[in-house]
Specification:
One of its GO terms (cellular component) is DNA replication factor C complex. The chain is of the alpha/beta class. Helices cover 55% and strands 8% of the residues.
Length: 322
Amino acid sequence: MADPADGRDEIWVEKYRPETLENVVGHDDIIDRIESYVERDDLPHLLFSGPAGTGKTATASAIAKELYGDDWRGNFLELNASDERGIDVVRDRIKNFARSSFGGYNYRIIFLDEADALTSDAQSALRRTMEQFSNNTRFILSCNYSSQIIDPIQSRCAVFRFTSLDDDAVAKRIEEIAAEEGIEYTDAGVDALVYAADGDMRRAINALQAAAATGEIVDEDAVFTITSTARPEEIREMVTSAIDGDFPAARAGLDELIDERGLAGGDIIDQLHRSVWDFDVDDDLAVFLMERLGEADYRISTGANERVQLEALLAAVALEVD
């Protein structure tokens, strides 16, 4: 077991990034298909879509490491389209890499992260580049929403849809890293990390490192404090008060989360959405609550006051059941 003091100056997300496809967790079907491409050395253009922290970037880099071994850095170009989203990036950096000479391999890989941030003109230029250099270059595109990728690019790629990781996969990985780092933890602490991560492995590992940095045992108190996440029972108590018609109590619970705990309105909306079906309410009230959640979320996203919208949500619930 490692000394708990060792490696604390490292970023664990990078330290424990999968080195091989076999180490990518939670997507067995996807990995099996990609491994067959790698084994045959017959990689098509790939499009990975799905939420953040589900293994898209890790899978892309693992493909390069398996194909090229120690030479992978020279044959793998990674670009982030959200930072470099103009058409010049496609015309210059991508084309220069695709044109440059290399030996020993049939093709090189260009990984374009957050490709859905590319402008439509840049995507059109990318489509033409994919056609022009298809003999010696393979593209791996990563995005949160495949609907933002133009159809001509989608039709040229094998599409893989990464879903949020299940709780068991996240918990298992957290326990493995904690054991490797010599971190003491409780089962409730692991459950809290899984809850706060919500299927995002990167968020879970970052939260584990932050909680472990206190030098104490990683328990649920440390996790909820570090991640600025409301406990599920706090959300339940706030909504239950509204359902019971006690708006002042529900509003006091909301004030506690915003003022004392520092939670953002969007985070509270997300936790409410995850918890709706855990409340002991009939289907009609659950549907009404979902409708009001959607309305509040939209208004907050367009710049409305978070507190006003959340109070209006709780008031609507209180009035609905009154």
